[in-house]
Design a protein that fits this description.
Layout lengths: L4 E5 L5 E5 L5 E4 L1 H11 L5 H7 L4 H14 L30 E4 L2 E6 L3 H7 L3 E2 L8 E9 L2 E6 L2 E7 L4 H15 L3 E12 L2 E6 L6 H10 L3 E4 L2 E5 L3 E2 L6 E4 L3 H5 L11 E2 L5 E5 L9 E2 L4 E7 L6 E4 L2 H11 L9 H13 L1 E7 L2 H11 L2
Length: 369
């Protein structure tokens, strides 16, 4: 059974096990790593270990967990997200000749008809470059009985969308189109910016303040790649996906105090009914950037807290990335896992807690030099 696992030891001495059976990645601290290594090397059995640690609850619980993994009793799969309807990556029928074409990462798309609200939000993505055949995406927006429908290359993607929810759905689905025309290694739920030659990646769960921080960093001179999806390709480059920054209602006042005009933007609503405004980033990244040696920073906004910075191990960072979410839930193979872990070890990894955007900016500017 041990042969069905691939192991990776981090620089800090922690052990990561990749299950070829389930595609899951398990992490162990130094104690867990030592126990797992003894089992892997055949030095001792799980039952023998349990007999030695009968009166040590923490170790007993750890040994039982490791034993279950090696005996094929892995965690039950999490409920999968509702799958998106498939749509063809290239047109099935001749497409109309639209007046405007837009570029997002390696995906070029056109859209007809473009509502006034959408036009104002994505005007800065307009390109005069011809659409590459393989990457062509034509989006048709149809309104019937007051509700919108979205079609990609003639295939229905979603129907019955109210006016104020159209743009958030539009952004989500076009991002997914970008995944599908990119040879990506990993896709993280994260904001990402650049400062000179260095990339700053900000993975975080929803509500952590990553988009607010990304908008502020762009305002202060950082190049903006994305506020939602950090897409890293097989060449270890971060792809620009600079859709407008989605700012939830709870952050409007914070950014207004910094000179942003949130109240002057159209208000949209997410699928969960949260109100959003979309801000155009000040400085936009135009080309992919190498992520080797990137700064991986997990932001957390806490009101009235002192700004603090904590260095993280690879194991800690991996756990926080998992909590934040992989934006595309693909099955990893052994080669991809090894590439991803090696890349992750090359990053400088920190957790940042802040309540003051200026102080957060100063710390990030210093770290990113």
């Amino acid at each position: 059974m041990v042969k069905s696992f691939f192991s990776y030891t981090t620089r800090e001495g922690h052990l990561l096990l990749f299950s070829k059976k389930s595609g899951r990645l398990y992490g162990f601290d130094k104690t867990g790593a030592a126990i797992a290594e003894m089992i892997i090397n055949g030095e001792i059995t799980v039952l023998e270990l349990l007999s030695y640690c009968e009166n040590i609850p923490r170790l007993k619980e750890l040994i039982v967990s490791i034993g279950k993994i090696f005996n094929g009793i892995e965690e039950r799969d999490l409920p999968s997200k509702d799958p998106l309807p498939p749509y063809p990556p290239t047109p099935q029928t001749p497409l109309p000749a639209p007046a405007d074409q837009y570029r997002l990462g390696e995906c070029r798309f056109s859209c007809t008809p473009l509502s006034d609200n959408l036009l104002s939000e994505i005007e800065y993505l307009k390109t005069r470059a011809p659409v590459n055949g393989r990457e062509t995406l034509h989006i048709t927006l149809q309104k019937k009985k007051g509700l919108w429908g979205i079609r990609f290359n003639g295939t229905s993607i979603r129907q019955s969308i109210p006016d104020d929810r159209l743009f958030p759905y539009f952004c989500d689905y076009v991002r997914i189109a970008c995944y599908r025309c990119s040879d990506y290694l990993i896709s993280l739920h994260a904001a990402a910016l650049g400062n000179g030659e260095r990339v700053i990646i900000l993975p975080a769960v929803s509500g952590s303040g990553k988009s607010t921080l990304a908008a502020y960093l762009s305002h202060r001179g950082f190049e903006f790649f994305t506020d939602e999806v950090a897409l890293i390709d097989r060449r270890k480059h971060l792809l620009p996906l600079p859709f407008p920054v989605a700012i939830k209602e709870g952050s409007w006042q914070t950014l207004e105090a910094e000179g942003f005009k949130c109240s002057s933007h159209p208000v949209h609503r997410r699928f969960d009914d949260q109100k959003l405004v979309f801000l155009t980033p000040t400085y936009i990244a135009e080309t992919p950037r190498s992520v080797k040696g990137a700064l991986l920073l997990f932001p957390k906004y806490r009101e009235k807290t002192e700004t603090s910075l904590k260095r993280l191990t690879t194991l800690e960072a991996l756990a926080m990335i998992t909590q934040s979410g992989y934006e595309v839930e693909d099955s990893f193979d052994e080669t991809t896992v090894l590439e991803w872990l090696s890349l992750l070890e090359s990053f400088d990894k920190y957790r940042l807690e802040y309540s003051d955007l200026t102080k957060a900016y100063e710390i990030i500017a210093k770290l990113s030099k």
